[in-house]
Structures are given as C-alpha cells and as structure tokens.
Design goal:
Layout: E1 4-10, H1 11-17, H2 19-27, H3 29-47, E2 50-55, E3 66-70, E4 73-77, H4 84-96, E5 100-104, H5 108-116, E6 120-122, H6 124-143, H7 159-169
Parallel strand pairs: 1-2, 1-5, 2-4, 5-6
Antiparallel strand pairs: 3-4
Helix pairs in contact: 1-2, 2-3, 3-6
C-alpha cells in the first residue's frame, strides 16, 4: 500500500467513538474538538501527511463553510445543510488525484463510498491505535542518544520512488 498523503476525519464521528472524547464532549463540545485536533498535531508531523478534520455545521442556521488552519491540521466546519459525509465525499476524488487518501469514520456507508472512490477506510478504533503506536515510537526515539537516532530517506519515501532512485543511481 502506498503511503497515505491525505487523511479526512469525520470529527464528531470520531469524538463519539473514543470514550474519553465522548465524556469530554458531554461536558464541553469545544474542548472535545480541541483535544482531537491537539492529538492529531503530533501524528501529522510524524507521518508527514495532511489532515482534514471535518465537523458538521449543517444544523446551524446561516452557517457557511469555514476552513481554519490549526498547526498542521486543516479544520473544516461544513455549511448549513451539508454534513461532514457530504464534504468528505466531495473532497476524496480531488485528493485521490494527488496521492493515497484515507477517511476515518465508523459510518459503514461512508466507508463503502470511500473505497469506491479509490480511498482507504480507517475505523476510529484503528486510528486511535495508530496514534498511540506513533506516540510510543516518538517516546522511544526520544530516549535514544542523538547519534543513535537514525532517520533515512527510506523512512519518508514511497517504495516505488525509492526503487526508481536506486535504478537511476545504478544507471539502469
């Protein structure tokens, strides 16, 4: 599988799937949104991908589509009458042209539509495990002395591109 370049996240869907965010949402919805975006910062930096967190505002009268950049995260609030699913379905085909796209949602229909458009589906539970694994990896690397922290081109480049570069190096 090629490296994921773009991730679209159904924000409220994820908040309602992760117990700790769901509890936080019950106390203060804005805090739950902020916590989700905060958790994604480190992930985005480590993975080097663009992340869009999409929040429904379709029931907010008079709302217009709003885009914010919070660190490395693109936060999108949909316009009145448009769900996060609609925004995601409209955006996946555009992003697929630029590289692998993943959609994080537990909505089965949305997962199927994503797959049909050439995207990758990730459940909120799978994504939380991925975030936790990355956090562990970062902590382990931080413990290593600087000289032992090895970062190679192979860690960041798609396998196909790496093979092409190797052929060029060998003049094949």
């Amino acid at each position: 599988m090629s490296r994921i370049r773009h991730i679209l996240i159904d924000g409220y869907n994820v908040i309602n799937q992760w117990d700790f965010l769901k509890k936080l949402k019950d106390e203060n919805l804005e805090d739950a949104r902020d916590k989700l975006v905060e958790m994604l910062q480190e992930y985005a930096a480590f993975k080097g991908c663009s992340i869009y967190v999409v929040f429904d505002a379709h029931l907010v009268p008079g709302s217009v589509e709003k885009h914010e950049r919070v660190g490395k995260i693109n936060v999108v609030y949909t316009k009145e009458g448009e769900t996060a699913d609609c925004f995601i379905e409209r955006t996946v085909p555009q992003l697929v042209k630029m590289g692998a796209v993943a959609v994080v949602t537990s909505d089965y229909l949305e997962q199927r539509i994503t797959l049909q458009m050439g995207g990758i589906r990730i459940t909120p539970k799978e994504f939380l495990l991925e975030i936790q694994n990355i956090k562990t990896t970062i902590k382990e690397r931080a413990k290593l002395p600087f000289k032992e922290q090895k970062s190679t081109l192979e860690d960041f480049i798609d396998k196909d591109i790496l093979e092409k570069l190797e052929k060029m190096r060998r003049n094949l």
